[in-house]
Amino acid sequence: MALNGNDQVQQKVLVLDFGAQYGQLIARRVRDLRVYSEIVACDAPAAEIAAMKPSAIILSGGPASVYAEDAPKIDPEVLELGVPVLGFCYGHQIMAVTLGGEVAHSEVGEYGPAVISRSGASELLGDTPAEQTVWMSHRDAVDRVPEGFTVTSKTDVCPVASMECPERKLYSTQFHPEVRHTEHGQEILSNFLFNICGLEPTWTMDNLVEQKVAEIREKVGDDRVILALSGGVDSSVVAALGARAIGRQMTCVFVNHGLLRKGEPEQVEEVFTKQFDVDFIHVHAEERYAALLDGVTEPEEKRRIIGTQFWNEFFAVAKQLEEDGRPVKYLAQGTIYPDIIESGARKTGGKASTIKSHHNLIPFPEGVHFDLIEPLDHFFKDEVRALGLALGLPEHIVYRQPFPGPGLAIRIIGAVSPEKLEILKNADAIVREELDAYNQRLFEETGERNSEHSCWQYFAVLPDIRSVGVMGDERTYARPVILRAVESSDAMTADWAKLPYDVLARISGRIVAEVPGVNRVAYDITSKPPATIEWE
Ligand code: XMP
């Protein structure tokens, strides 16, 4: 459970995860305050936790009732380690019952915003107002605090909205300070970290680079590592970390299926051969993919063929590598925290309920086994981006927009052909050039990379139809290109971007003028739902 190489980190806050759907959010809020934090399973024995030398411990929320038979428990010794502890929601209730207080079932739950009234002084609530809005999500509630604790706030429904025992450095809240809707959540967390625990906001991305490099070195030793490098942010950050940690002990395998955007394979090769010193293998699989996809029109069939062939190509390289007699022990992966939460909290104690199975699970062939290295599995996308910048990755990789694994094949409706690919790549390059520039202008105006109106994902789609046009004096019967540009934060929902007419006009004018075979441009004005972002 303990991460290796932790001696690098002087101050560390451990979040004990009781199955909160977004347990990592707490660790993330702590890191936002520039204190390192990571998550561990709630039932870790006190000795194991002590060995990790935490400066503070936070107990997360969770879906269970403390009195349920299979309710997650805490080793009571954790509360006796002399390390300050802060509990939220389930963490608040488990602290109460573990120390002899009582939690009662309540008829009326509290879900959503609630107003707490403070009673008396509180180290935790500090200078926050006497009445303030917090975010609640509970049915059970503490109704008798353990000996030595005082109640520091309540709501109309909840008799103990927060409690503390400063002598033992134990604090807890029924509400969720980690959620943005809790008005003074970050201030409450700051009070805990800086005033109560005496920590300093000194942690930076450079510290994280050093820590991750040390962990990878310690884990890998002299062994060999292979990485499937797609050119996306996550795998590129792992490649850059690996380059710094273990250099040429790592082989980055870049499978080029010929379905990437214009210029992309060249950019990936440039960065990982010139800028980073790793063993880089560019697998030119374009022709094999073209043959496999020839005449295939059904979207799921395209995905299946592309996915299966990817691993065929990858494992063929892995096998070749081992022909020199040195086995490859590890497979490095750019799994990030949201991937894990989507696949059911596989590492965080397994308590969060499964949402959906992760699309990147690897089908190892018979007889093949690698141990996994996933250095980003505690982090959110924007933290991974910051890590990439700290490692010196270029902005075109760090801020690369999401791009589907099956690539342009699912943006060509119907069968993929070299002619259609050429059209789409050229049209898409214009879309990206114009909307990159548009986003850059917004960034300069607002100072925000993802301002309200910036486009989150934008690309061209090539439908399987032709239409009539007139160019010069000639009638044309050529292809339309569809522009798709959306605003979103997580791809779960999206709205079509309200682009200025002059931007739309420029894109349309350029595509028709510069891309042979195209005589019309349409704009997709559908949100998700009911549509999806991609067309296939
Ligand atoms: P949809 O089209 O479902 O897409 O609204 C949501 C987000 O996921 C991306 N996407 C994929 N990413 N493999 C991926 O790695 C895929 O097969 C895939 N399909 C869609 C899409 O670009 C969007 O950002």
Number of β-strand runs: 21
Predict the CATH topology of the largest domain.
Rossmann fold
Low-confidence stretches: 1-8, 345-359
Cα distance, first to last residue? Answer: 40 Å
Strand content: 15-25%
Give a structural overview.
With 536 residues, the protein is an alpha/beta fold. It has three domains: 6-196, 3-Layer(aba) Sandwich (Rossmann fold), CATH 3.40.50; 208-398, HUPs (Rossmann fold, 3-Layer(aba) Sandwich); 417-523, GMP Synthetase, Chain A, domain 3 (2-Layer Sandwich). The protein has 14 helices and 21 strands. The chain has helices at 23-32, 46-51, 90-98, 185-196, 205-220, 233-246, 264-275, 286-293, 299-321, 337-342, 381-390, 395-398, 418-446, 501-514, and strands at residues 12-17, 36-41, 56-59, 85-88, 102-104, 110-118, 131-138, 141-144, 150-154, 162-165, 170-173, 224-228, 250-256, 279-284, 328-332, 371-373, 457-461, 467-471, 474-487, 495-496, 518-523. Strand 15 (328-332), helix 10 (337-342) and strand 16 form a beta-alpha-beta unit. Helix 5 (205-220) packs across helix 6, helix 6 (233-246) packs across helix 11 and helix 13 packs antiparallel against helix 14. The radius of gyration is 27 Å and the shape is globular. The two termini are 40 Å apart. 42% of the residues are buried. Residues 1-8 and 345-359 have low confidence and may be disordered. Xanthosine-5'-monophosphate is lined by residues 303, 402, 404-406, 457, 491, 528, 532-534.
